[in-house]
Amino acid sequence: MPIRFLNGQSNVFAAANPFEVSEYVRANVGSHSLRLPHASDASASLSHRRAGTLDLCRLSYGAQARVLSESLGDIYHAQFILQGYCSYTLANRTLDLPAGHVLVLNPDEPVDLTYSDNCEKFIVRIPSAMLDDACTEHRWFKPNERIKFSPEPQRFEDIDSLLLLLRLLCEEAESELATPQMLQHYCRVVTTKLMVMLKHNVSMVAPTRHAPSFERLVNYIERNIKLELGADELAHYAGLSLRSLYLLFEKNVKTTPKNFVRQKKLEKVHSILNDPAQACPNVTAVALEYGFSHLGRFSELYKSTYGVLPSQSIRCRQPQAGR
């Protein structure tokens, strides 16, 4: 029996024109263009529900369809193939994903997907800020570029606990008893679970398992994140030589103290620019507050990490309205 996500009360379209469905997806899930290789009277369907900062969408175009997008902007798409199959064309190969597989589309990569005529998908739209927050909360360390998931699909049987969480999130999103705060807690758990179960480029080694002194350093950096924290000061605080300090960072997060501090500062700025609940006079003020004195280089680093300019982030910082 196919796995079901979202029930009848989340239906937006049933037996609809595929291009109507595509227009709705473009406005609510992700920018793309739809191509139908053969003219047909296809019967498309779509269910959609907003759950906190995540969007949940189950759709079928009812005909062979090709979906193209230059990039997804500042969001990720976790795509669960429920029926039929989907082909994902990469730069050097094409992956055929039958039902029972999941694939995550990264924000800065072009999308070229072909659905079979009986393909049904469940898509979770995840803002990059949610993944960044999960890394900050669990002290996982990202490389200098943005989080990137592996293009290799995974089977449902390997992620059954994630599927259970998603079904629960769907039920809560459709419940009249769920509060926005409750849904956001579920979003955090689902996002963290997705990070734990799928493959990506984030280092998830827990520092405390290897080096308590590194845990102390991370806490010190986070408490003093607005200050200029150099390797000499960190070595003095930890009671280590510079060589030992560099070895400690290499062992735990595979980078230098300078890169680690810069990444932590950037994560904090990104969180502020994207959170409408935090005071934010302008990009320049926030960047300077966290030690980014060269604004041109700051903008380049921000865009290379998050795929958008900081000015774009601050323009979009509006509270998500419930559906």
Describe the structure.
The model is unreliable at 207-211 and 319-323 (pLDDT under 50). A hairpin with a 2-residue loop joins strand 3 (44-51) and strand 4 (54-60). Helix 2 (128-138) packs across helix 8 (257-274) and helix 6 crosses helix 7 (242-253). Helix content is 40%, strand content 21%. The two termini are 29 Å apart. The protein is of the alpha+beta class and 323 residues long. It contains eleven helices and twelve strands. The radius of gyration is 21 Å and the shape is elongated.
Descriptors for this entry?
11 helices; about 40% helix; about 20% strand; 12 strands; alpha+beta; disordered C terminus; about 325 residues; elongated; seven-stranded antiparallel beta sheet
Largest sheet: spatial strand order: 1-3-4-11-6-9-12
Poorly predicted sequence stretches spanning 5 or more consecutive residues: 207-211, 319-323
Report how far apart the termini are: 29 Å
| Biggest sheet descriptor | 7 strands, antiparallel
Count of helical segments? 11
Helix and strand element order: EHEEEEEEEEEEHEHHHHHHHHH
Determine the mean pLDDT.
87
- Global Rg: 21 Å
Q: Approximately how much helix is present in the residues?
A: 25-40%
Number of strands: 12
Q: What proportion of the residues form beta strands (DSSP E)? A: 15-25%
Content-based structural category = alpha+beta
Globular, elongated, flat, extended or rod-shaped: what is the shape? Answer: elongated
